[in-house]
Amino acid sequence: MKIFVVRHGETKWNKVGKVQGRTDVPLNHEGIRQAKETSKLFDNHELDALITSPLSRAKETGKILASKAIVHTTYEDPLIIEKSYGVTEGWKVKERYRVYPNGHAPQEESFKIVRKRMRKAIEAYATQFQKDVLVVSHGAAIAAMIKELEPELKQEFLRIENLSITIIDSKTLKILAWNLDHEHAKNWLNGEKND
Question: Among residues 8, 45, 109, 148, which one is catalytic?
Fold first, then answer.
């Protein structure tokens, strides 16, 4: 069984370089287009579950991605919501780093907490489901999850692209591939079917 973790599609704030965090910003037209393109990977794919963050950009992305999949259950999980950036949500990313170069703004959630809650969620999915699972989350949350599951990447800066796919083996919780765009994910999945 595989756990497919996908970052939501583009939003207006992504496009202009604003910090989103927990602010509920919907997909823009490009985000919808990205999700429709990526959804082809999941056409007729049987999924035990579609699990999304409670934020609308993740829920809308998930709905589009799974539109032609065979999905047994769908729900929102607050454990996979985006990292809170506290008072800097709505700021330009460059401004945030200028004012808070160490990344610790007032009311900001620590990466350690994000890593632990993401791990807790992935471990629960791995034990709860028997078939593949599609999870739609957020850039910082997914980067934190990758660092938690792959400690050798802990010090790396990981930029998770919109609609990129990270694939986890549910038995070992090892990351098989991460930050794959649509084409690379298609090639990876085709290679998996041929093995």
Answer: 8
Catalytic residue among 10, 45, 60, 82: 82
Cα dist. 110→82, 105, 106, 117 in Å? 12, 10, 11, 11
Amino acid at 102: N
Residue 47: HSE in the Cβ half-sphere, 13 Å Cα cutoff = 26
Element (H, E) at 56: helix 56-65
Q: Look at strands 46-47 and 70-71 and give their pairing.
A: parallel
pLDDT by residue for the chain (195 residues), tens only, comes to 999 999 999 999 999 999 999 999 999 999 999 999 999 999 999 999 999 999 999 999 999 999 999 999 999 999 999 999 999 999 999 999 999 988 789 999 999 999 999 999 999 999 999 999 999 999 999 999 999 999 888 778 899 999 999 999 999 999 999 999 989 998 998 887 555
Q: In this structure, are residues 30 and 10 in contact, taking their beta carbons and an 8 Å threshold?
A: yes
Contact criterion met (CB below 8 Å) for 125 and 49: yes
- Is-catalytic flag, 8? yes
Mark whether 82 is an active-site residue.
yes
